[in-house]
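Chapter summary example.
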Amino acid sequence: MSLDTKPKAKKPAPVEEPFKWDPANLEMTAVLGVLFVISMVLQFMNHGIKNVLHCVLLLLCSAATALLAEGLWGKLVCKKNPFRYALEQYGWITSLILVLLVPAKTGVYPIVIGTLFAVLFVKQFFGGYKFSVFHPASAGAAILFMYLGNTSAKDVVTSASPVAEIAKTYGWLIVKPDLRDKLLTPFNGLFGLFLGKYDTGIGTVSAAAILLAGIYLVIRKRIDWKTPVTYLCGVFVLTGLIGILRGTGIWYPLFHLLAGSTMFTAVFLLTDPVTGSKTTYGKILVALGAALLTVLIRVKGDLAEGTVFAVLFMNMLTPWIDSVTEKKENPKNKIAANRPLLITAITLVASLMICGFMAPSLQAIEPAEPVEIPFLNPDKPQVLGADYSDFEPVILDKAEDGTKTVYTVEAWGYALEHSQNPAKTKNIFKVTVEDKKVVSVEYVEFHDSEYIGDDTMKPEFLVQFNGMDLTNEESSVDSVTGATFTSRSVMAGVNAVMQDLKEAGE
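The structure predicted for these 506 residues follows.
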């Protein structure tokens, strides 16, 4: 018996197929990129080039974080080529959607943390691209909104968003036409909301641009029309029912559609091919559920914008929804055959009932009318951009306090012209600033005439500075009657802070 001593031939190593780009993902990248460019044009028109540069920086940092994190994950965990693995995960799409969702004032540190959470904890921990349970960008945005919302960029100018305004000032319900006009006029009415002449998420601002993007994606069959149409119709019908029961008018449901991220959610979040439903009735059910949750979170919750939380909650229910809406090949009876339709109908009726029962409990809040204060003189306003050089304002100290900057400033007051104070000492103030707006003005030391100038120490005078936009030199406050000089002393201190911010921004 002879032994075969010939060495066995080694099996050839499997040849890795060349990487192929997914046309659908490339097209989605192009659409999101165009939307980002449109958003940058609006940022430039509304706030200038600094906002544009900051938004571009956010996108670059987020995309770089996503590619680097997923490449390292592929190398260390999956033992794959890191460059190829990063490309296969299409992390830049997550970055694009995340950046388009967040406000322009978002800082670089929060966007990096949100991106890491989205691509690692939400996507890679579940198996990577095509295996996510929750929408990665929505989860990243939710983390930013809940925990990192106060960490904002200093040199970015933003203004109030319509969603935040109606939530905080009016409690999500306005029944008087004059208050409705007061809300909509700063945003150029409903048409202004449609075009995007206001502040909200970077890319969620223009309903017109998002609508055109959605139509294009439907025509190209990149998304199923049933999901966005059902969601938008659901939001419109449910808020319209509230409007009918409370007498708000047709503007109310239109406001819910056009303001905030409603349109963006309909086109880009709920239609995700991985986390979205796979059945026809499942897509309708998910969209209906998201519409109901959006309305509930907005009008009854503490969060002004509830879309991303609605999406994440419905992501959790999607596997179950798919299981109960999947068509059976041999249904036992008519009820089993029509179960998806029955569940959809029950969901719709339940949603209408919930909003119908909830509507009477909503309280319309009317902002308090400004009260005329006897010792303030509106005929002698002190304008921020006036010349205060005679008061010789000087910044004594400048300290960071989280997202705020606290200035200690001194300026001459009444003692400059008169010897009411033998030492002729300047008044000293503490001016707290955040996002180039005054948070508060306080006296540290008062050295002006008693019983007249000391009226400027009253909260009724100092509160006028709260919220003052230091980029607007036309900002003004009313003087204290009989203490114009001391009133100018306070404004001189605030003017010095404005000048310091100008120099820092150059």
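To summarize the output: The beta strands are 376-383, 394-401, 404-411, 427-434, 437-445, 476-480.
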